[in-house]
Amino acid sequence: EVQLVESGGGLVQPGGSLRLSCAASGFIFSTYAMSWVRQAPGKGLEWVSTINSGGTSTSYTNSVKGRFTISRDNAKNTVYLQMNNLKPEDTAVYYCNATLGPGPDYWGQGTQVTVSS
């Protein structure tokens, strides 16, 4: 059974930091590109960041560049999102996503991040 389990969300003040984790099981993690996608209240899904299967290439949406860092540990089947200098507009449910070419992709259940004073 494929599972993606996110953790690390919570309430943080503006300017603060959080580190999200996504633990994967049930598929060959090291062959999949991994992404973080978020959904703010009342809005659609927004792509945040992607890391390739080997961890050698990353990309970010403009609004998080310089503040967020995606990484992965293929030995631990885990992808991370380090979020620094958080802003209220980063408030959202954050989902991790696994993709491999044209095949089916996998999603976690999400973790809530709330940035508020």
List the helices and strands and how they pair.
Blueprint: E1 3-7, E2 10-12, E3 18-25, E4 33-39, E5 45-51, E6 58-60, E7 68-73, E8 78-83, E9 92-99, E10 106-107, E11 111-115
Fold and architecture overview:
The chain has 117 residues and is an all-beta fold. It has no helices and eleven strands. It has strands at residues 3-7, 10-12, 18-25, 33-39, 45-51, 58-60, 68-73, 78-83, 92-99, 106-107, 111-115. The strands form two sheets. Strands 2, 4, 5, 6, 9, 10 and 11 form a seven-stranded mixed β-sheet that branches. It starts with a strand and ends with a strand. The mean pLDDT is 97.
Oligomer state equals single chain
Biggest beta sheet attributes:
7 strands, mixed
Which secondary-structure class do the elements indicate?
mainly beta
Which stretches are low in confidence, meaning pLDDT under 50 for 5 or more residues running? none
What letter string, H or E per element, gives the SSE order?
Answer: EEEEEEEEEEE
| Residue-averaged pLDDT | 97
Total strand count, please? 11
Please report the distance between the alpha carbons of the first and last residues: 40 Å
What brief labels describe this structure?
single chain, 117 residues, 7-stranded mixed β-sheet, mainly beta, 4-stranded antiparallel β-sheet
